Amino acid sequence: MADRDGKIWMDGQMVDWRDAKIHVLSHTLHYGCGAFEGVRAYKTADGTAIFRLEEHTERLFNSAKILRMKIPFTKEEVNEAQKAVVRENKLESGYLRPLTWIGSQKLGVSPKGNQIHLMVAAWAWGAYLGEEGMKRGIRVKTSSYTRHHVNITMTQAKAVSNYTNSILANMEALDDGYDEALLLDSSGFVSEGAGENIFVVKNGVIYTPDLSAGALNGITRNTVLHIAKDLGLEVVQKRITRDEVYISDEAFFTGTAAEVTPIRELDRIELGAGERGPITEKVQSAFFDIVNGRNPKYAHWLSKV
Ligand code: PMP
To answer: What's the CATH number for 7-123?
Structure first.
């Protein structure tokens, strides 16, 4: 990843990709207090556009606020930085990674006295869970790891440290031959994937865990709530049990990286017909229409670079 051409925006400057480095004594590297975003830019008939840029920037600032970090740039500057990075790297479409971290002035758990930094990188990145998974659906394992309790780490922050739990769950699932992990909350209710929100469909109604299950308030999740409304489908946010997923007709993951990915199996139990379901397909197709600028109703969600 580090050895390539291109530019990364670091603390207000465009830096050569290979030179975008930080010191080994950076506070975040030791104690894990930092926040990031995952954002996508898509090719549209009108040129490249970043999807829901303002909402991602807003969430980044909210994550920083929760972590008591003060980002030394305005939201407008961070939006501009993201557009500039896509342009500089000549991307038609791609994934953006803004990250804010604590500097290397001093160590010790208290971060006070350290500088807060921000960077934005962008690169081409296709289907996160594979092209085939997008069509056929993926195989998911209920993790042996519990998702964060809402008062242990802050689950509405997209905090760097929250991802050790995701990494453990994802590695366990992959080592066991699955494509991704599903995590339950500390009461045993369905929370989210390692990097995705989850939806299930039963008798034509869509269900998704409410955020008290410790899931991130996903921007794609929110996009799907709009899509469902447009399609005339009811969405219920509630506590969901693992066996409700087993007997669902369809299920899918959502996320900026994962987009809308069907789930065909959980714990070796086929969901519905064991393939991408018809409602999932409709939601997926509506999603790609929106992000690629083919639905004028949501043109305001696309920021041209
Ligand atoms: N949950 C987790 C743990 C994630 O990492 C992500 C990806 N950001 C999501 C949910 C989905 O969020 P979004 O749709 O905003 O990308």
So the answer is: 3.30.470.10
